[in-house]
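Late entry, evening session. Most of the bench is empty. Finally got around to the prediction I had been postponing all week. Sequence below, unchanged from the version circulated by S.P.
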Amino acid sequence: MTFDPEVVRYGTLFSRAVACELRINDIPVMAHAEDLMINGAQPLRQYILKGQNAAALVCRAPGDGTGPGRYAPMALAEARIADFREGETLSDESGIEYARFDPVFDEDTPPMLKMETGFVSSWGGDWAWAKAPPIDLVASRGALDGFMSHVIQRFAARDMESLLPLFEPAIRDKASAYPVLDVEGLANMTLAWLADTDAESWSVLPFDPIQIDYRPAANGRLIQPLGPDGLPAIRSDWIPAADPEERPSYVALPGLIGFHEGQLRFMT
């Protein structure tokens, strides 16, 4: 892996009144809810391969599940992948662009719109997720359910120390991708994941393996565990906002799951 430490590749995503997701090499790196207006950015080094890379923007019209939904008149989504130098504004006019998505939402737009493109990178990493074997969801269902049950029990107990080893592949990849970070610092950040939450009111969603949707990612190498509402399966109950006019929130364990040296681990 050879890259300029002063340059970081970012994915940027702006959306208004449309659910959308930016995927790099079939890994969901950013997702926005349909009822919000969000302008976000995410560094992408740890998802980039040397040579050919794939990018996709997936947009979904709201619906109640009984039929195709319709996009709101104000629906808008814009996504971009570009290199930015340190201190450079992440604007549409700056950076070196590799991919861009500007979907049009009208009465002819399908309720599930997927736009795809590719780009070539002169550098990339020997990432653990890229070496993970494909997951057979049928044969691995029991192992995945057992892993999830253990993780959720420890998450409910706020025991991040026992969960830390499960994040080792992701931590090492991030430390390789961003030299300003190191393994020890990233480990400490993981241990402090719940530091800002209230221990006395802390509660998590109950684990029901039948309700879990193991959504494939990274071309079948990883899975993203989702609940029946499409939100992360490993998450807290809703936390009320301090301001009644603001949205409630939740805390979820980040990352996708895959096999690393024969064991299930968090890989991103």
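Two things to note before I forget:
The two ends are 18 Å apart (CA to CA).
The mean pLDDT is 94.
Will write this up properly tomorrow.
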